Amino acid sequence: MAYSREQLAEVHAAVVRSIEQKDAALFASLYTQDGALLMPDGQVVQGRTAIERVFSEWLDLGFVQQEVEVVEFTSDNLIAVEEGRAAGTFRDDAGETVHCSNYLIVHRLEADGVWRMHRDIWTSIGGSSSQGASY
User: Fold this and answer.
1) Helix %, strand %, coil % for the chain, to 5?
2) 130 within domain boundaries
3) Are 104 and 87 in contact (CB under 8 A)?
4) pTM of the predicted model over 0.85
5) Which residues, in sequence order, are bridge partners of residue 65?
6) N or C: more exposed end of the chain, with fewer CB within 10 A?
7) For the chain, what percent of residues have pLDDT higher than 90?
8) Does 129 map to a domain?
9) What is the separation, in whole angstroms, between the first and last Cα of the chain?
């Protein structure tokens, strides 16, 4: 069965929870075991353990909120592709910074019947900066 927009909304809600609860393990669990973040600086972060570590670093840098707008979504029975725009908010003693990006996420249906993010790539939109975090 194809991945639905309702299931996608549940994943987005889980990402929001992982930020609000500062739960890097929850965030990493949304990815396949060999999932990867392909970051704007060229760095590739592969595997749940590495994704959890990087997400924890973002939380330490003050990552407090993410908003997404899905621009296009397509799915078959094994693969789904999500394209959109995101705004990640970082807050620290110096104030608040919003980092905007365009993103593309490939979701994959796993053997356990759960859809997970497999590849997550984004590009920075000029003029936004997050003081050290690539997100």
Assistant:
1) 25, 45, 25
2) no
3) no
4) yes
5) 89
6) N
7) 91
8) no
9) 32
